Structures are given as structure tokens and as C-alpha cells.
Amino acid sequence: MCGQAFDLIFKCDISLSDSLSVLGFPPPLPLPSVCTLSHLSLSLCHSPSLSMAVWDLSVTVEDLGPDALPITVSVTSDLHVGGVILKLVEKTQIKRDWSDHAFWWEQKQCWLLRTAWTLEKYEIHADAKLLFMQQHKPLYVCLPSGVTLRLRACFSSSVFKAVMGICRMLNIRHPEELSLLRPIEHKKKKKDKGSAEEVYDLTEVYDKPFRKQWLDSSRCLLQQGIQENDKVCLRFKYFAFYEIDPKYDAVRLTQLYEQARWAILLEDIDCTEEEMMLFGALQYHISKVSLSEPQTPVSSAAMDDLDSALQFLEVKMEGESSSSLKLLTPAVLTFRPKKLTLNKYKQFWFKFQDTSISYFKSKEESIGEPIQQINLKGCEVAPDVNVAAQKFLIRLLVPAPEGMNEIYLRCENEQQYAQWMAACRLGSKGKTLADNSYQSEIQSIRSFLAMQKSSSNSQGNAHANDESINAHSLVSPRYHKKYKTKQLTPRILDAYQNVAQLSFTDAILRYLQIWQALPDFGISYMVVRFKGSRKDEVLGIAPNRLIRIDLSVGDVVKTWRYNNMKQWNVNWDIRQVAIEFEGNINIAFSCVTTDCKVVHEFIGGYIFMSTRSREKSNTLNEELFHKLTGGHEAL
């Protein structure tokens, strides 16, 4: 067949040299006779030595400047990428370290990082546009504190690995909890006419939870349109903070506090008025102490020995019978499951044992079988407290086959509330009352109540030292309109008296503790359309559950926990997420305000966070992270 083809070309009076050129072969020797032409044609079809023709590849070298012309390199398809780099460097005649350089293929939007691969394997032809440039480039990174750093980031590796490099420079542990997002363009600051005072427009911040444009962790910066000297924001993405230790996490704690502070001030998360005054007092104290106190935590050998002793005691007590522990006295509590009825609270006799609570009709019947036993392991525990109104409620979200059951426990006083709230928090983590953190948990709750009581009684109190503070910078805009400065200042200063003795680190830890105790803590929101529904709804993604929320009124419709999840997948063609839970529960939805890859990455990311353990804390399984979050598109 090949011989016939070349005979045809020859008979059509087209030179063999031109024919071979069209086919991509080099010019032959002097024209052979017709009888040897067929033999030559067959050799061209089957001989490996002649199958790879030389062709020109055009490469732009970034270091030569924007106006420099591309360099042409003669290559063959079986030449590996490393060989192309060698030829290119020789042609530039520039002596420098080229080890950080690599090819960027503009049409395919990918890096050619496998230098042993041939051009043929990459499917690179003469029409390819390659850019030879550095993999590490300057990037502006805005931290949660508002400080913007200019540093060198890796533009060729995944965002996940780029964040690891940035956190390594900043000495932030557990970089898997953070990621990069595109900054949201706000209206520029403007000045009122006739006034020199600067006014900052915050009218766009309230819909911000739906507009966070997270970068894809599986793809590199350049693939997502991030160029040299662009600006990105570094933020904590996954609210599952592992092993926070003030001895090693000074930078991590500070940035986490700043992200929490702005979430409170910009009302990304709801809190009560009393809690807002506490946040304001702690913020004022932290700002004040940071100017005078060294912020580097110091490791104490005595504290290390104490931690070891307490850990030994915890193990010893865990081995004893929990029934012999009388750390929490059974009590009469009022109980109400949240249903669509007007049922009031009913009194029952409650007992706490191991990680469960049981309730009976009366104390006398507590020696028999309980009405119900509720295992708290894996449940959600949230406070619903107003000291001024003597309201001490414990809100429990208990896992159930159909989702989550919401239960309220009402305590009679502060002491009872502190003990039972601490017990419920431990039970939700799978810990018993023998755990060494039980008493410290009680003390923390009591301190929180004391600060709230002080805040609620602040009106009418006069301070001997009425310090001048900028009250409006300590609370959210809602309270700017509700109160004047002279009304806010006494309330904040009153709450401040209860935290004035805290060190810088302890104040930050207290702030974060109150922030994490808020009912809506750690929830990222997306607008979605569930399969079979005709209206848009909100999907809340928390560290351990998914929440379906009515967009019009904000009520929780349904809750699903990750530990009941059997599998999830994404149909990339129709951009739909499908999830299967235990009990033959299946849900599917498409995303309205974000890409389904973001939801997929959040779910996989939180499952990855749950696999971390103390034994593996020094190693980060990057491969597992990409398996859980990357999906089809990452491959």
C-alpha cells in the first residue's frame, strides 16, 4: 500500500522531496529509480530509525523579558522534556541556576513536570505554545489579621501543597486546616462631603458567607487564573482544629483569633447581645495586653510533668467502675423534645452514667428501667443561656436514623447548669466524668456565666477608671445603630473587669472557646437546589454534619451526620452531588452559588480531618486528602 502511494505521487509529477516534506520526513538522497521507490516507501513505514522526524518547537523564555521573541528548538517526538530544556538553555547562552524552571503549556493549561516523559507522550506538536518560567513566583497573601505579605509561592504544585509551603514559612502547624480564596472586591472607602472622617462601606459583607470563592485544592494557582503578584487570602477553611498547643502555635492561635474576631464583627455568625459584650471586652483586653506583654508562650517543665500526671490519673480512673464515681449528682431537670407542638417542659429525674443520660418519672423509679436512655457520643451540645432572665438551657442534637433529634434540658440554677453542661460536652466527645478535663470544663462554664452576669448588670454602674475606648470597633454594626457610644462603653468595661487578669494567650483561648460554643460555629453555607424541589434552599456544611435550611425563614429542615454516610459521588456532567446515608436515605442536589467541586471538597476534607490521630500527627497523608477531595476533575 505504501509503495502504491508513492508510485502515485511519482506519476503525478510531484517531487519525492516535496512529498516527504509533507509527510514530516527529512529530505532524501538523490532521487532513486521507480523500482527502488516502492522499497524505500516500505522502509519509511516500518523503520524506527526513520520514524521520528525533526521539527521546530517554539518556546517563550520568561527571563528574557516580555518583548523577547520565542526561541525555536529543533526536536523529535521521542525527545524527553529534560532534553528539550537542555537544548533551550544552551540556546539562551545565559549562565544561571535553571533548576526552578519548567514548561507551562498554555493551550492545555498544565505544567510539564515529568521531565522523563517524551514530547510524544505529552502529545506536544509543532503548534504548541510553551512558556519556560520559574515555578516559584511572588504572591501577595492576605492573612486573617489583615496583614498582607509578599512571599514566594509555588505556582506549579497543587494549592494544597502551596498552602503547606506558605504555612511552613509562617510557622503555622496543621496546614491542612487552611486554604486560599480569591478576595472579594468591596466598595472602596469614601469620604463624606464636608468631612475629613473616612467612612468604610460594609453593606456588602452580609451576604459574604455565600460568596467565598475557595480555590480548588487539587489544581495549581496558574490553572485557576492566579498570576504573579496577584493577591489571595489565607483562611482557616476546615473548622476542625487539631492539637492547639500555645507552646508551639503562637502564630496559628493569633491568626485563628483574628478570623474569629472578624467573623463576629461582620456578623458571619450569630450571637446574643450578652455574648457580643463579652467578645468586645476580650477583644479590648487582648489589644491592650498585646502592647505590654510578650506574646511568645514559654514551655514549662513543671506544667509538662503535671500534664503527664493528669494523663496517668485519667487512664487509672477510666479503668475503675464509673458507677462508683459520684462526680455528678442525679437531679430533677425539665425536658422537652422540639416538635411542631405547643408541649411545655416536663420534669423528670435524670442520671448521668458513662456517656449517656437516662431519665425517669421520679427519683423512686430510678432503680428500674428508664423511660429513655440517650447516648451523647457524637451529639451536638450548644448553650442557650440568659443569666439576667435566669434561663439555663442545654440544647442537644442527638443522631437518629432519620437525621437529628433536637432536645432541650432546662437547669434550675448556674451551678447545676455548669455541671450538666460540662458532662454533656464530655459525653459528646465519648469521654466519661473520669476525664481530667471535667473540672476545668465546669470552671470555664462558670467563668462564662460570670462574665455574662457582669455584662447584664452593667447599666447604671459607674467605673472609677472610665477608660477611653473605641466601643464601636469592638462590636458589630448592629449595635452601632442600637446604642450610642456612652451606652456601649460601660457595658464593655463591666465585662472587662472579669477578664482583666488574663494573660495574652489565655484571653485568646477564652475568646476562641466562646466562639466555638456558638450554635452556628463552623458552618459554611451554600445555596443549592435539592432534587425534586422547585425552590432554592441553603445547605450548611459543618465539621460533622450537613444541614438543610429553609432559605426563606432560616429554619433547620433536616440534618445528616457524616458517620451515617455510606458514600457520596458527583455527576460531573450535570454538576449534581448525590449522597447515600444509612437507612436507605438518599439525597441529591445541584449547587446554585458555587461549584459542586467546592461541596465535594468540603465533605471529603472534613472526613479527612476525622482520620487524624496523635500517632500520625507528624505525617500528613497528602495522597488520602486528594483521594477524598479531588474527584474526577483532579485526575
TrEMBL record:
One of its GO terms (cellular component) is cell-substrate junction. Gene3D superfamilies: Phosphatidylinositol 3-kinase Catalytic Subunit, Chain A, domain 1, Pleckstrin-homology domain (PH domain)/Phosphotyrosine-binding domain (PTB). Pfam families: FERM_M, Kindlin_2_N. One of its GO terms (biological process) is cell-matrix adhesion. Coiled coil: none annotated. The keyword Ligase does not apply. InterPro entries: Band_41_domain, FERM_2, FERM_central, FERM_CS, Kindlin/fermitin, Kindlin_2_N, PH-like_dom_sf, PH_domain. GO terms for molecular function: integrin binding. Keywords: Cell adhesion. Residues 326-429 form the PH domain. The keyword Magnesium does not apply. Belongs to the kindlin family. This is FERM domain containing kindlin 3b. It comes from Takifugu rubripes. The lineage of its organism: Eukaryota, Metazoa, Chordata, Craniata, Vertebrata.
